[in-house]
Amino acid sequence: MTADNSSSASVGRPSRREIIRLAAAVSGSAALGLSVPDAAAAAGRGPDATRTLVGAIRWDAWVGGESHYGSGVNRTLSPDKYHFRLPFYADITVAQPTLIDQSFDGETTGAAPAGWNVTAPTGTDATVVEVSATTGKSARARSSSGAAATMARAFSAQERAVTVQWQWKETVAGQGSLASLRGGSSVAVDLATRVNGGAKELVHRATDGTWNVVQAVADDTWYSIKIIIDPAPPEAAAPFVDIFVDGIRKVRGATFREPTTVLDTLSFGTSEGTACELYIDDVSVRVTESVNSDAAHQSVMDQEIQYAKNAGIDYWAFVYYPQEPLARGRELYLAGEGRADVNWCAVLDGNFTGSYATNLPRLVAEFSGPTYQRVLGGRPLVYFFTTATADKVTQMRTACTRAGLPDPYIVVMAWTAQSAADLKTTVGADAVSRYATGEQNGAPYSQLADAEAGLWDQYAAAAGDVVPTVSTGWDKRTRYDYPLSWEPNYTGFKDEWTRQATPQEIATHLQGAVSWNNTHPDNASANTVLIYAWNEFDEGGWICPTLFEISDAGRPLRLDAIAKVPRTSSGTQR
Which domain of life is it from (predicted)? Predict the structure, then answer.
């Protein structure tokens, strides 16, 4: 199968440029049929003290594949099953990313596997077989002690990362079965089985020819193998190989067996020196990064501002990255012509607090900016995500006093009510909140919403003042399929998912948070709620319009629903 390596969208789908044109056409207030909030009211500075401010968390790793951040999130959204999450500004850069996809089930029993170049000397064979105790068929390579059977399949040559997956088992483990990924005559990856001192092992070969243990293997046991191999990583990093067994990364960042800039052949075989019976199934090769979600353009940010304004989003809570390229989203917002229509504030995590003395003066200077979100008569709103200390909070308050600014309204985020309450007391914060809420194993969104609504009461009982979190979803299976470098503990993500919410379910949950604030004025001094999230597409929580939402429905459906949620205790929209 030939991969389309152009930067155009897939057949029948509009390109990002076309999507942005369409988005601009439908995002005006008249097209949406919405009233546009007054700028002063949207800033939380209007006379109506009962109006609840609606904020949304922003996580700005959407900077394209030229950085390892952008490449990482592009990979998480590259599988077809996750394309519905792609943001409206994304491109599908490889229209046909599947290079091999073969289960052998529809093939003729006893025949050679279709599409494979089989070498089977006398006393060996490589054929399609039915396997007892399993459904469907598999390929089997079988050899005697004097010769080897091999099966190799070429795919369209790739100079980009590919993901190779298969299942295999040996009737008797450790008999020297082989798997190789090549580019031309160079072997990039070698995997094999062996018996070493009585132990049966899966091993991979290093550049110097030595074999390194991946893990133990057992007789007549299926193993799911995945290899992610990148001959040209972003930021001029060295080519690398990651090896997974049954979803767990066993080898990370290994070097190529032999140098190559292209990948084009996958092969399996048996050992020449040992009788062996190897079964192979569910073989696939895919282009690893087949989408590009690059928001680092002023035109994209300007469109995002328009979308947020029309939906009545009062402010974005930027996870504040001082470093490039993750700072680009905030910088583009601050340079945007429409920035006065949507305010912003900071969510501080270790990226900021790791160099707190350097970063704090810049943030305090930004508190006085015309679009920085303020509450309670002008207090700058700041969220700390798990990294607050008493010293850091004191430094911030002192710096504001010295700058002639009002005392900041500091909200600490934590995962439980008691830990939030303890943190608030320890550091001297003003209120508590939570970054997000999720459910496990495909629970319905209604279960998430109910649980989160209960947390508002728990946090209030434990800590007093609360900023309720409104989670729009939770599904981290993307990061199980393609683990990110900054999240090494990914294995539990395969179970961390909640079923997708409808736009109306999200709007109903938001309305519940606004109503909670109105009925709990003593626990909602700042009268704001925080949506998770504007753009956490790969974590499963977003309200920013998606590529297919705009191309298929022609509407930002989640934002349309949010726009209709009243923000005042009287139940009127504005």
Answer: Bacteria
- Domain end, chosen from 222, 256, 288, is at 288
Give the pTM: 0.89
**Residue 346 belongs to a domain:** yes
What CA–CA distance (Å, rounded) separates 198 from 195?
A: 6
What whole-number distance in Å separates Cα of residue 407 and Cα of residue 428?
A: 12
Burial 221-254 (b: 16+ CB within 10 A, else e): eebebbbbbbbebbeeeebbbbbbbeeebebeeb
Which H or E element spans position 255?
none
Report the CATH number at residue 233: 2.60.120.200
Contact status, residue 200 vs residue 216, Cβ threshold 8 Å: yes
Domain-embedded: residue 44: no
| Burial (CB count within 10 angstroms: exposed 0-12, middle 13-18, buried 19+), residue 157 | middle
| Nearby residues of 133 by Cβ (< 8 Å), 6 or more positions away | none
Give which of 87, 215, 93, 210 is closest to 161, Cα–Cα.
Answer: 93
Range of the domain at 335: 62-93+292-563
Give the DSSP H or E segment for 487.
none
Domain final position from 253, 288, 323: 288
If residue 367 lies in a helix (H) or strand (E), which one and from where to where?
helix 356-367
Retrieve residue 251's tokens.
Answer: 């080898």
Q: Which stretches of 315-426 are assigned E, i.e. beta strand? A: 315-319, 343-348, 374-375, 379-385, 409-413
Task: Please list the pLDDT of the chain residue by residue as tens digits (574 residues).
Answer: 222 223 333 334 555 555 555 555 555 543 333 333 343 433 443 335 589 999 999 999 999 999 999 999 999 999 999 999 999 999 999 999 999 999 999 999 999 999 999 999 998 999 999 987 777 999 999 998 788 999 999 999 999 999 999 999 999 999 999 999 999 999 999 999 999 999 999 999 999 999 999 999 999 999 999 999 999 999 999 999 999 999 999 999 999 999 999 999 999 999 887 899 999 999 999 999 999 999 999 999 999 999 999 999 999 999 999 999 999 999 999 999 999 999 999 999 999 999 999 999 999 999 999 999 999 999 999 999 988 999 999 999 999 999 999 999 999 999 999 999 999 999 999 999 999 999 999 999 999 999 999 999 999 999 999 999 999 999 999 999 999 999 999 999 999 999 999 999 999 999 999 999 999 999 999 999 999 999 999 999 999 999 999 999 999 999 999 999 999 865 444 3
